[in-house]
Amino acid sequence: MGGGLWRAGLARLLPCGCVLCGALGREPLCPACRAQFCGVGPCRCPVCAEPLADDATGLPCGRCVARRPAYDATVAAVSYQMPLDRLVLELKFGGRLAHARLFASLLAEASQATLLEERPALLCPVPLAPGRLAERGFNQALEIARPLGKLLGIAVAPRLAQRVQETSAQSRLRGAARRANMAHVFAVPDRAAVAGRHVGIVDDVMSSGQTLHELAAVLKRHGATRVTNLVFARTPPHR
């Protein structure tokens, strides 16, 4: 038996520890933690996924009504809060790539419930600039998109969009500075790959939504008919 098959078989036989509480089991997230932290979430705006009052089901939030973003919809698996925020940081800055498969699994479950009619034709991970990609060694959005594409049966297009400018980390900026930071950052090399298609943008975390807005705007300018964000975690928007 090959080394890869042997390790896969051994992994199925040996219990693993829950990534949140350490309880032994067959899955990376134990049933108790899944129910407590990844169960039914808040009612969300269908456009930007901002949490809403329970009686606002299916209605866009006031922000999206007043100023519609370039993207058409957002699916978020969980809220960006303790202890799930630790997993995001472990993936992005600690290289815990196994977390990406867990994120994809939870995001696929959330997507199945909301993409019954408007399924994307392809998935576009938010690209990293070459310098940051070389420094980190991987793109966390792509690491999530690959297993997510397999689970949803949707092709992943890693080079559909390119980041053509190095930028400051969005997490360090607020308001107008975030918008200015992301202006003219993305490019789409092949218009034919986008025109007339529904594109799903994949990322780990959505906060202000400015990165996703800018990428969606570029995709729309190149002919995309619809853009849906598929993000693992959603934070409250920065005012």
UniProtKB/TrEMBL annotation:
Q: Say if the entry is tagged with keyword Glycoprotein.
A: no
**CDD domains hit by this protein:** PRTases_typeI
**Any matching Pfam family:** Pribosyltran
Q: Does the keyword Transferase apply?
A: yes
Residue ranges that the Swiss-Prot or TrEMBL entry lists as coiled coil: none
Q: Where is the Phosphoribosyltransferase domain?
A: 162-233
Keywords (alphabetical) are: Glycosyltransferase, Transferase
**GO MF, one annotated term:** glycosyltransferase activity
Family membership:
Belongs to the ComF/GntX family.
Q: What is this protein called?
A: Amidophosphoribosyltransferase
Give the species: Pseudoduganella armeniaca
| Lineage of producing organism | Bacteria, Pseudomonadati, Pseudomonadota, Betaproteobacteria, Burkholderiales
